[in-house]
Amino acid sequence: MTATGEIKKSVLVSLWFMFLTFPIMVIRVNTVQDVVEWRWLNMAYIGIGTFFISMLWRYMIRRKEREGKKEKTDNLSFAQKIILDKKIFIPLVALTGLFIIVFPHMFSMYQTNIMISALIYVMLGLGLNIVIGLAGLLDLGYVAFFAVGAYSYALLNLHYGLVFWLALPLGGFLALIFGVILGYPVLRLRGDYLAIVTLGFGEIIRLVLENWNEFSFGPSGIPNIPKPPLFGVDLSLSGSIIYLYYIIVGLVIFTIFVINRLENSRIGRAWIALKDDEIACQAMGIDKARTKLRAFGLGAMWAGMAGVIFAAKTTFINPASFTIWESVIILCTVVLGGMGSITGVISGALLLILLPEYLRAFSEFRMIIFGAVLVLMMVFRPGGIINNVRKTYKFQKT
What we know:
mainly alpha, 2 domains, two-stranded antiparallel ribbon, 2 strands
């Protein structure tokens, strides 16, 4: 299409938008003086703004179409090229590791607390990445396993005095059991139906925790959850926060290692095959039911361990901490970061959790910005910030 045609379309979009917003942006009734004010300058701003936004949008769409015609090797993002180039990637990892080690000593307790929350969501995103990114199972009730882990630690400590280090694997194991329990009824479901069922499961868990007062103490929640002990030494507030920071860093590194090994293992290839084509996967002799249950169980296990960390960090939990909105945020970290990409999920989690904290000046417009970012990402980078680089296996003749 010619430049003249693009300009005409943008002018039409601008006029249409001015017409739609005319009653809101132009007309204002002053009830004090009983007059109608006409703010024509607002209409001019809207017209000029929408014209340039429309032109920019069309330019980006055309650019995306041109790039889509290039070869796949030319379509790698800047981040992917850095990951594939070991001369850059290894020193970058070393510098990142050094920064992570000294972070709590360079910044305040507030900054360290924010980073702990971000790393908890990194764990949650990596766990959900198993279910969605690798196995292709849309789970909207993932926060339920997060709640199972948190309440496991809180209740086991309250009734049996169980310490953090024993509750951590137990919380993950209990969440794994719940993941398998959820997986059995949904083995035959996929797509939207699977999403609706998992969403219902997440809400069931939340409502049970909110209404079963004898078990979970209802909306009042469970206070005074102890922080992780360090060989019986009583730590100060700042010391316990730094200690918890290093614990979550270690767990994130362990999570990355395990999920990377799982992705490159036989079960990981089975998950990817299940995601690509269930019928072909089953025809190749892969047990579809067992593969799905493993995905649900292992994904839930990481959410359970993250829940134990969350309970230890906040020292107080109640059902309001585990709403559907948490599932949406965790899902967004995976989708925006890049489904199937470990580096992408980490980037998405850090972006979605840290940016709102550091941009509190724009808190009133946070949801508008969030929605706009989602739309732009789905249009221009549907694969996420860092696309998953599909590994290829070649047989060499001897």
